[in-house]
Write a structure and sequence with these properties.
This protein is of the alpha/beta class. 28% of the residues lie in helices and 21% in strands. The protein has nine helices and ten strands. Helix 7 runs antiparallel to helix 8.
Length: 258
């Protein structure tokens, strides 16, 4: 079964479509697969819409797997996580994929950071991801309790250690207090491309869209261009790497190699 992505695109190929979740696929021409996770969305009774479709596809160059979940479990439903891994590995084998990238915003960002723990992922891109939805880890978090109270349990209490030897990470947060309770608990590692944007809240993706840089930022992350990405980001935002905040190094004094 195919479902049109939008009036100007080729149709999705439906891989999984059940009451709880759905996964659709867009073929590409390269050896890269981008797995895009949906966020919470705005309507409880509806499946969240797909996100980052155009940026993930990059004009049909990349294969794309789109994932949406009605129950919003932040990857804590083992049936869902196993289904995602199954579909990813099928595409990798069938299309001879050499580069797997995960991407998401908020809940989707958390899921994008968890996926490398479950299957081979070369690069994970996360906008405004939570560190944890577990009240023992982030007791200050009071948003999304409707969903958290319905979790089947916790199989992924946090985003984990983020192994930079196995995967490249590009993580973006605003500096608002409700965001700092999460990013302040992330690992402090110079190998993580983790940026904090001053004066930005949870709607970071919206801010990037308003500056017309979201697509370019994602493309640079997918192609592992951290220096160019930083320059682009700092051309419009007061953005500082997380490890430099921890070390109290000024934002302009950043000379990491490409």
């Amino acid at each position: 079964m195919t479902v049109p992505a939008n009036p100007n695109s080729i149709p999705f190929i439906s891989l999984v479509d059940c009451d709880d979740h759905k996964m659709d696929y867009l073929p590409g021409s390269s050896d890269r697969l981008v797995v895009s996770f949906s966020g919470v969305g705005s309507k409880r009774d509806q499946m969240p819409g797909y996100e980052f479709i155009g940026s993930a596809s990059d004009g049909g160059r990349n294969h794309v797997l789109l994932v949406s979940e009605r129950r919003r479990t932040w990857m804590n439903d083992t049936a869902l996580s196993q289904a995602i891994v199954t579909e990813v590995e099928k595409i990798v084998a069938r299309e001879d994929i050499q580069d797997v990238v995960s991407i998401g915003n908020s809940m989707g960002g958390f899921m994008a950071l968890v996926l490398p723990q479950l299957t081979r992922v070369s690069c994970a891109i996360a906008f405004s991801p939570q560190y944890s939805m577990h009240p023992d880890h982030v007791p200050e978090e009071t948003r999304w309790q409707y969903w958290r109270n319905r979790f089947p349990g916790f199989t992924h209490e946090t985003i984990g250690s983020l192994d930079t030897d196995a995967c490249d990470y590009y993580i973006f947060h605003g500096d608002a207090a409700v965001e700092e309770v999460h990013w302040g608990r992330f690992p402090v590692n110079p190998a993580l491309n983790h940026f904090i944007l001053k004066g930005v809240n949870h709607n970071l993706v919206k801010s990037l869209k308003q500056q017309r840089m979201l697509g370019r930022l994602i493309r640079l992350a997918i192609h592992r261009k951290p220096q160019k990405l930083r320059v682009l980001l700092q051309s419009r935002f007061d953005a500082t790497r997380r490890d430099r905040i921890a070390a109290d190094i000024p934002a302009g004094d950043e000379t990491r190699p490409e």
